[in-house]
Amino acid sequence: MKSLRRVSAVLSGVLLYSTAVLVSGILAELEWPRFFYAALGGRTSLAALVVESLLIALPVFGLALAWSYVTVRPPKLGRRPTTAWCLGGLGLAGFGWLVFGVYDMAQTPDAFNQTLGKLLLSSSTPPLWGLLNVLAVLLGTVLAGTLARQRYSQLHVKAGKP
To answer: Which segments of 1-128 does DSSP mark as H helices, in order?
Structure first.
């Protein structure tokens, strides 16, 4: 049963990362109001890219926090959170998406003419698919693991176990 929880945590991490990449890509394709870009110096300005990336990373963080908490929390009193296994799944999926992004970038002739800011921050640009999204998923999972660990400790104190 212990190994089943670990495998499911790894698979959940893989699915979480893939879902986060897809959701951030969908959010990146949404049209923002014109005044948004006008206030930040134009559509291609670094400030607009940073703010847009932050606005996309917030729902990704919420998704990762909720998904990870459901994944890593112990179902019973004697079980420990599976945070490390979920993070392992995130790492596997991150590597897979990075390899796919490098391949996709190599197939696009004008991909190498993009700015460094766009390569790092844009949710629709390979190979990183938005560095803030990656950080949001990692922070959401770590925070969920911390919350699950606190719940685990509280349950043990109530049950009188060390």
So the answer is: 2-29, 34-39, 46-72, 83-107, 116-121
Distance CA 143, CA 83 (A): 10
Please state the separation of Cα 77 from the chain's center in Å. 28
Per residue in 119-162, pLDDT (tens digit) is: 899 998 888 899 999 999 999 999 999 998 888 887 766 666 65
Burial code (b: 16+ CB inside 10 Å, e: under 16) for 130-144 equals bebbbebbbebbbbb
* CB count in 10 Å sphere of residue 46: 14
Domain map (residue ranges) of the chain: 2-159
* Euclidean distance between CA atoms 132 and 58, whole angstroms: 9
Alpha carbons within 13 A on the beta-carbon side of 3: 0
pTM of full prediction above 0.85: yes
CA 114 remoteness from chain centre: 23
91: nearest Cα among 4, 6, 13? 13
Mean local confidence (pLDDT), 55-70: 97
